[in-house]
Design a protein that fits this description.
Blueprint lengths: L3 H4 L16 E10 L6 E5 L11 H11 L10 E7 L3 E2 L2 E2 L2 E7 L6 E8 L2 E9 L9 H13 L3 H11 L8 H15 L12
Parallel strand pairs: 6-8
Antiparallel strand pairs: 1-2, 1-3, 3-6, 4-5, 7-8
């Protein structure tokens, strides 16, 4: 029996390995019930179909920062990262931690169990407000505007509109569409960039 396939991380969820390149700021799309083992699915705009399933400690942090009503989490943002020191079954296996969240004004400390009989403070810091993440419907509407733009001035107006959003997974498609349409109308214009680029 070849065990190679069993070594791949679960593709139906966000894994610590997905964040090895560094922290990611993500936006909550919705929160749904999970399984008995992983009771919470936090669906993220940036990782469609691969929910963040926070550990009990990180769920405690989120409840302390945002409260127990998961319906209020929609649209809120958090910074998550891989912590290689996360322990499970007495061994360091790595896991996903939350470092910053939106909708808080100051640092929120949470007293968490680190090991049996030992507790430590986990701090989560405020995440500065950023532009809203564009929805699929908004991206499709803007794509239609780009396709129908008659000239450079219309494309520049669309560029200004794009700068008001975090384009998330729609960035590549919209930028490519915008550049192609600009080439079709035959003049140079501004490249539509989000504020963080």
């Amino acid at each position: 029996m070849d065990l190679t396939d069993s070594l791949a991380p679960k593709s139906d969820q966000l894994n610590a390995d997905d964040l090895l390149a560094g922290p990611r700021t993500v936006t909550v799309e919705k929160v749904t019930p999970g399984s008995a083992e992983q009771p919470v699915n936090i669906n993220l705009v940036e990782f469609p179909g691969r929910p963040f399933r926070p550990s009990k400690s990180m769920r405690r942090v989120l409840v302390k920062a945002w409260g127990p009503d998961a319906a209020k989490y929609v649209g809120r943002r958090m910074t998550i990262y891989t912590d290689p020191t996360v322990r499970f079954g007495g061994q360091e296996v790595g896991g996903i931690r939350v470092s910053h969240v939106s909708h808080i004004e100051k640092r929120v400390p949470t007293n968490l169990t680190v090991t049996r009989g030992r507790r430590a403070i986990w701090n989560v810091d405020p995440l500065p407000d950023g532009p809203p993440v564009i929805t699929t419907e908004q991206a499709d509407d803007i794509a239609a505007l780009i396709t129908n733009a008659a000239d450079k001035s219309e494309l520049d107006a669309i560029s200004a509109q794009l700068k008001t959003f975090d384009l998330a997974d729609h960035r590549g498609r919209l930028l490519e569409l915008w550049k192609n349409r600009l080439a079709e109308v035959g003049t140079e214009g501004q490249i539509p960039l989000t504020p963080d680029s």
